[in-house]
UniProtKB/TrEMBL annotation:
Belongs to the glutaredoxin family. It comes from Plasticicumulans lactativorans. One of its GO terms (molecular function) is glutathione disulfide oxidoreductase activity. It comes from the Bacteria. This is Glutaredoxin. The keyword DNA damage does not apply.
């Protein structure tokens, strides 16, 4: 997950993954500003969080919640 420490959506996304018991890596755009170019290249977006499960681009927090409501987030996390 590409994230920033100051971003409330990033904190919410991490909390959702924590509730799911998922392990994840946070790529901190505050500490590594060059990651913004990588985010844009990989996702086509310039906002955080941007979450990937494997190579699958999940998107931002709202996208994760939508997947969770449809029951698809658990499937992606277990796959």
């Amino acid at each position: 997950m590409y994230a920033s420490a100051w971003c409330p959506y990033c904190r919410a996304a991490r909390a959702l993954l924590d509730r799911k018991g998922a392990s994840y890596t946070v790529l901190d755009v505050d500490a590594q500003p060059d990651l913004w170019d990588e985010i844009l290249r990989r996702s086509g977006r310039d906002t955080v969080p941007q979450t990937f499960i494997g190579e699958h681009h999940v998107g931002g927090y709202d996208d994760m919640v939508a997947l969770d409501r449809r029951g698809e987030l658990d499937r992606l996390l277990s796959g």
